[in-house]
Amino acid sequence: MSQIYTNEGDTLKGNKIVVEARKITDPISIVKSGRHKAQRIILKDNAMCRIAKKYKFIK
Questions:
Q1: I need a surface site. Which of 1, 7, 22, 42 has the fewest CB within 10 A?
Q2: Which residues share a beta bridge with 40?
Q3: What average pLDDT score do residues 7-14 get?
Q4: What secondary structure does DSSP assign to the chain, as a single string?
Q5: pTM for the whole thing?
């Protein structure tokens, strides 16, 4: 059975996460580790996400 996380600070982690929202911000480049970069967007107004593909190995 699925669990819904609604508290501030709850985290989802997976290889592929599908998101839906009424409004999103423009992508912002962020530094992850060393020379690797990633992008961040913020979802607003009725935001929801689900894990579409889980990690094979969890650290």
A1: 1
A2: 28
A3: 87
A4: ------STT-----SEEEEE-SEEPPPEEEEEETTEEEEE--EESS-EEEEEE--SS--
A5: 0.68
